[in-house]
């Protein structure tokens, strides 16, 4: 089949794409910026990348009309402003208008279980999208899921953060709400099984695992799986805003995502037996404990396929980050360090490619953590977002409070763009350059384009820390893993 896949670079889309290709389908991936959508060699022959923005219907005019089916995997958990609901509905309207012109026989939408009466704005938004898509010419299949458990999923990572960091938790009463968690592997099974399935066209199904648990039970079950003893005290006095701040400061989530989750967690998300998919797609789902164990197995084996933080941090309408694929030449304040070395350049590149996350930033990590905490306090992403893989980077990856713009191992270049809250824009670039005598030089460039006086004051106030951090950082990157430091020459060029 010829299939259109929206949300192809999201948490679900990245996992679904290789399954569709393995099943023999040709997939058209709709993305806002093809430059940050990187395909593996095994997928290229069966994938076409199409550029378009669902909020700009004119950009959809060139999309192919000869398609057999489409997946609508577009939904932002980061939006929390007054326009969020309207933008979500507009995206669905624009997509429906496009679908009505195509030859598609089915559209599949992954939604959320919404069986309560007083729904959160996100669950109301998802139901609204269902209604919009359902009024189109193309038959709609809706899969409604509760919390999805898998390596890299937002829900799993937040539960993991809480359990691993807090021996005693003072929690709001929403921890007593009930849900029906489902493993990511089972979600993938259903997404594939309903495709081109006549019995699923024009129908909505609730999907969930075999366990109905409170969030409190989920925390304690994960703690037991990790061998921890945890104590939870539930209090009625934490308002939604205080709960959001509590979740935001303790876990690696963004504040807007924390707000959305707290608001949604007041609803029970338990599957309605009348909308069960079992009669149409018989399948035995993993238990919550099995899904947790599998997630940790993937993490330990460095096989995390996708992460919730792969989406850009700015919500429904992200900036075109790839416009910054080259650092601007003018109007910048810079700190440039170079260090010549004679060891294997591939080892130095591997050290560069392993920066951040658990490895840290090679120099005074406590200062980086303070900077991350400051960013969290003003609503930024913070340092604890981590990285997808401890040893591999690709364009578009999150890396603590940076975003990877370029990860060109062959050319020895890594370029990061700051997603932290700043009075300006910041880049951090590493390049390994060959020398005529057979040695190599590591170039490390921190560049900042200030916005007004506040930006300049910010940069110059950090100059003393830059001297400590950046000089030590480049030296440690070059010599990390080298028991006998090699002679090298360091040089600093002023901005």
TrEMBL record:
It comes from the Bacteria. InterPro entries: DUF2867 (IPR021295), NAD(P)-bd_dom (IPR016040), NAD(P)-bd_dom_sf (IPR036291), NAD(P)-dependent_oxidoreduct (IPR051783). Residues 7-116 form the NAD(P)-binding domain. Pfam families: DUF2867, NAD_binding_10. PANTHER family: NAD(P)-BINDING DOMAIN-CONTAINING PROTEIN-RELATED, PROTEIN YEEZ. This is SDR family oxidoreductase. It comes from Hymenobacter yonginensis.
